[in-house]
Amino acid sequence: MSRSMEFHFDSPWGLVVLVAVPLLLICLFAIERRRTRAAQSDNPFCEPQRVRNNLLAFLLVSILATIGGIFTTFWVLLVQSGDPFESPLFFVGLGLLGLVVLITTGSLWIKRRHRPVLLISSTNIISQVKEGRPSSIRFLAPLLRFVAIMLVVVALARPQVATTEADVFAEGMDIVLTIDVSTSMQAVDFAPVNSPRDRKSRIVGAKKVIGRFIQQRTEDRLGLVVFAADAFTQCPLTLDYSVIQNILGSVKTGVIQDGTAIGNAIMVSVNRLKESEAKSKVIILLTDGDDNASKVSPKQATEIAAQHDIKVFPILVGKGGLVPYPVGKDIFGQMQYRKVEIRTNPELLKTIAKESKGKFYRAVDEKALEEDFQDILDHMEKSRLMDPGKFTRNTEVFQLALLPALLAILLELALSWTRFRRFP
């Protein structure tokens, strides 16, 4: 299967926030600078003039870069058409905004280095303190805070991974799985070979075997048809096995009006296959009863299948005759069974197989049914198939940014309250 993946942001507000965050940091920096100037006007331990000049220059450059970045990015987003990531101006704007973040971070670091943390009347006591070395990881806490903010910004932009599946070519065959879902499929005579005492209904056993059959396919297109008194397509021919597996899991008896319309089931399956260009077009018909509700006779439906070179492989599920059938639960909640006779017509299924150049099978347990499926595959000729179409599935991945942001915030708080606790 041909797949391609693409990462993109679905929310335009993410870019707005990306612009707003650096601008907010600049405003906070300007407010803090103004406040500290007033506090340090009479302080002999004030920042050196050189540091103040450098911070002022950084502030001016940050303002100019912010204005330029906002103007450039919004010009591309609002005026120019097409993908903004194809425009060089868009990357210039993002670069200017990224420069603002770097300058702001550097300015805060420089200011913190030259800000006095403790004011005392005499320096004599400091001369008696043994000289130490600053911690090499003292910038870890503010770095974690910055990383958390940027990760939240990324999450607000709704990052998505787009998986595109295009036309697929493979060597295989076209198979329509046609399953009887009449209430007789609830008979519990389909016990596993290794556990003959287990009570398993025919429909459950058949679905289990079909599920394993689908898992083993790699290049065969599969379709799914269910029938009782009427027949319906549950899944057209596809190479997306996960889809057909999900649909198979929801198949159950009692949903369609009760009955067994084998002729209708063959006709619906033929409609799924008649336009196929595969060399091998197969209908695997799983049923446990006799035709009693068809509007199109099974013989006529089989002739139409033969005309389109479609082979029908009927599989009679169950033992037939008197079989245990669930009739309800007792007062203790235990399922009760009684012997009922389910009418079968193996001769009809043999005729269908013969006229369509298929083969008749009879499965009384899971192992026999698996062997029947394998025997059908061994006699088929494969051809080059194409599953046309193209679709894109978008998967939200903002959680991948929120979780690290939460962890960064928690770690930053833990460090600020313990190892890097500041005084005063």
Tags for this model:
424 residues; alpha/beta; Rossmann fold; 2 domains; 6-stranded mixed β-sheet; 45% helix
Task: Kindly describe this structure.
This protein is α/β, with parallel strands linked by helices. The protein folds into 2 domains: 3-116 and 137-164 and 397-417, no CATH class; 168-387, Rossmann fold (3-Layer(aba) Sandwich). The protein has 12 helices and 13 strands. The protein has helices spanning 13-39, 49-78, 88-114, 124-127, 140-156, 202-215, 241-249, 262-273, 298-307, 346-355, 366-378, 399-417, and strands at residues 3-9, 159-165, 168-172, 174-180, 221-227, 231-238, 281-287, 310-317, 321-329, 335-342, 361-363, 383-387, 391-396. The strands form 4 sheets. Strands 6-5-4-7-8-11 form a 6-stranded mixed sheet, with helices on both faces. A 3-stranded antiparallel sheet has the order 1-2-13. Strands 3-12 form a two-stranded antiparallel ribbon. α1 packs parallel to α3 (88-114) and α9 packs parallel to α10 (346-355). Residues 42-47 have low confidence and may be disordered.
